[in-house]
Design a protein that fits this description.
The radius of gyration is 21 Å and the shape is extended. The protein is an all-alpha fold. It has seven helices and no strands.
Length: 160
């Protein structure tokens, strides 16, 4: 009697996930079954494109848009690989809960929350024409300075 060897096909194709994300940002997340992440990525991408299209973005906004585009592309490929790796170990192939929403930083401080709330408040005021986007993007290096100061303070606080 002849034995049949059945080779399981990987559940997700990293190439297809990357290709979908290349042509339509966030489509790779939907392909991988991460629907909430895909919707979040759509809103982020649409917001960045809208702000860039208004012509007030300075080069910094273009860099953020390009960085986000490549981030979501690489993320969809890595998640597809993680799903395949999990399937090879005998599990059901669903992505781990930690892969659904990326964490920004694990510092244990409220710094990133305060930064995001401040940026959100500034952009909200600009949407209601209470401040001008042009003035906001003139001061984008201040964000880098604040983050650098935070890193220095964290370094010296950990040293003690």
């Amino acid at each position: 009697m002849e034995e049949r060897i059945i080779v399981k096909k990987p559940p997700k194709s990293p190439f297809l996930a990357g290709l979908l994300s290349f042509f339509l940002p966030s489509a790779g997340s939907f392909y991988n079954g991460e629907y909430v992440k895909g919707i979040i990525y759509i809103f982020i991408f649409a917001g960045l494109v809208t702000m860039q299209g208004q012509g007030k973005g300075q080069p910094f906004l273009g860099i953020i848009l390009a960085g986000f585009y490549f981030f979501q592309l690489i993320d969809s490929i890595n998640v597809a690989k993680a799903i395949n790796r999990k399937a090879m170990l005998g599990e059901n192939g669903e992505p781990a809960p930690s892969l659904t929403i990326p964490e920004v930083a694990k510092t244990g401080s409220v710094f990133w929350g305060v930064v995001l709330m401040a940026l959100g408040a500034i952009f909200l005021l600009a949407n209601f024409d209470l401040i001008d986007y042009g003035h906001i993007f003139d001061f984008w290096p201040v964000v880098i300075i604040i983050i650098g100061v935070k890193f220095v303070v964290d370094y010296f606080s950990k040293k003690k």
